[in-house]
Amino acid sequence: KEWLKDVDKFSLQNSLKDLDKAYKNFFSGKGYPKFKSKKDNRKSYRTNYTNNNIEFLDKWIKVPKLGKLKIRDKLKPQGRILSATITQVPSRKYYISLCCTDIEVKKLESTNKNIGIDLGIKDFAITSDEAIIENPKYLQKSLNKLAILQRKLSRKSKGSSNRNKARIKVARLFEKISNQREDFLQKLSTMLIKEYNIICMEDLQVKNMVRNHKLARSIVDV
């Protein structure tokens, strides 16, 4: 069909490959395919690198069909680009993730130090050398604002533009909380791998723990 020419061919090919892989996993007993709805507020597609069709240009990135896109991240990708995934998240923001290979990884110096980590609920973790890592509780700190935004959302008429605006405000707050957690974990994990050679952690069944409704919010906020 004529309109198919307006779409990046690699995105169509990758969608078919993902579908094929999902059914192969299903028939081998690994899980049921997850069907995607057009009503889903998270959308993405993947395109492949060929003939310099994906190119990083300082404050811009060039991708097939979309051309040059202005980006906020100034961190230049390392290595050789294999593919790019463009994602729209519920807050209506767009992200592009690059999959690269042939990256030179610097080896960390040995510290000859080992550590054990016990995850908690009140505190984020306690280490074997008795250091306490406090739980930042980002969700708990935003609960009042979240409750106000969710009440406003519930009062809007379904399908209206005002409801969509209210939904985006809720999504952006959830995104902020998620980003705060991600930043905390990245900084903590970076510190640990630089300081210690061996890191031991207990094997917790978090999914089962969340079933306890009295502890669920505290566990999720860790």
List the helices and strands and how they pair.
Elements (H helix, E strand, L loop, with lengths): L8 H19 L15 E6 L6 E3 L2 E4 L3 E4 L9 E9 L5 E8 L12 E6 L3 E5 L4 E3 L3 H18 L5 H35 L2 E4 L4 H4 L6 H5 L2
Parallel strand pairs: 7-10
Antiparallel strand pairs: 1-5, 2-3, 3-4, 5-6, 7-8, 8-9
Pfam families: OrfB_IS605 (PF01385)
Organism: Fusobacterium nucleatum subsp. polymorphum
Protein name: Transposase
Provide key terms for this protein.
three-stranded antiparallel β-sheet; 5 helices; 222 residues; globular; 2 domains; four-stranded mixed β-sheet; single chain; alpha+beta
Q: How would you describe this structure to a colleague?
A:
By secondary structure, this protein is of the alpha+beta class. It folds into two domains: 2-101, no CATH class; 114-220, no CATH class. The protein is 36% helix and 23% strand. The protein has helices at residues 9-27, 138-155, 161-195, 206-209, 216-220; strands spanning 43-48, 55-57, 60-63, 67-70, 80-88, 94-101, 114-119, 123-127, 132-134, 198-201. The strands form three sheets. A four-stranded mixed β-sheet has the order 9-8-7-10, with no helix packed on it. A three-stranded antiparallel β-sheet has the order 1-5-6. A hairpin with a 2-residue loop joins strand 2 and strand 3. Helix 2 (138-155) runs antiparallel to helix 3. The chain is globular, with a radius of gyration of 22 Å. The model has no long low-confidence stretch (mean pLDDT 87). This is Transposase. InterPro entries: Transposase (IPR001959). Pfam families: OrfB_IS605. It comes from Fusobacterium nucleatum subsp. polymorphum. Residues 100-212 form the Probable transposase IS891/IS1136/IS1341 domain.
